[in-house]
UniProtKB/TrEMBL annotation:
It comes from the Bacteria. CDD domains: TM_PBP1_transp_TpRbsC_like. The chain crosses the membrane at residues 35-54, 61-83, 89-110, 142-158, 188-207, 213-232, 239-255, 267-284. It is found in: Cell membrane. Keywords: Cell membrane, Membrane, Transmembrane, Transmembrane helix. InterPro entries: ABC_transp_permease. Its main location: membrane. It is a multi-pass membrane protein. This is ABC transporter permease. Coiled coil: none annotated.
Amino acid sequence: MNEIALLLAATLNAGTVLAIAGLGLLINERAGVVNLGAEGMMLVAAIAGFATAVHTGSDTLAFVAGMGAGALMAAAFGVLVIWLNTNQYATGLALSLFGAGFSAFVGITYTQARIGERLQFAVPGLADVPLIGPALFRHHPLVYGAIVLAAALAWFLYRSRAGLVLRAVGESPESAHALGYPVRRIRLLAVVAGGALCGLAGAYLSVIYTPLWVEGMVAGKGWIALALTTFATWRPARVLLGAYLFGGVTMLQFHLQGEGVQIPSQWLSMLPYLSTIVVLVLISRNPAWIKANMPASLGKPFFPGA
């Protein structure tokens, strides 16, 4: 029973990184912008957050630094694709490559660095409940914050006026522009907000989840978060569930290794990425279903007055 509790706890921790980044990318795509630079943004945010934690000892400042780094990179991406009309896919890939190289260069001096002892969190009265306590109520507050964020984003998109405007921009920017909405500014704000959340995910990874800095430590999580938006058909609650699913698959490999299952470690390491490919292939078999849920102007440039 204790092993099940540990596996569930590890699943929530691993899924939090994917959930926060996936929700950020969902905001981008709901506004009609595809950002393939999540991997690079998360890497730069990871080193920014880790370096801040090393020098200040403050997790809060580390998260702020990570969000700032992600938002800054996303803003640069937004200016290029929204105002200068560069190709969204090529620019996103360039951002990802830049982030990987820049973080590796900056992080050279931090590979041997260590941050202070991590605080242990527990929900009073619930953390000691057998099985449920260790599995659900001994996590960093950001684990629960990801759940609150998904609920808040769902309310924002479907119940608030600003959320409806954001969705309108993603569905038909021409119509939104005709009604007087500043489409390009709305898209830029959405891109920056999405980048800040990707940055928060990267900082959480290096400061709380590991906590250490290793070159390339995001290890494809940015790409999995990007795939999550399609898997979830652009709905926040499904992004959250998908994140925990992929997080569980990731943790399963370590659980099986710990149990001495005679499977080559390389096959176990492939599980999260293999499951991502399988899910995307299954979803792609029904393109009409994807088209019915996908923002109509996703990935399409907008030229005011054209």
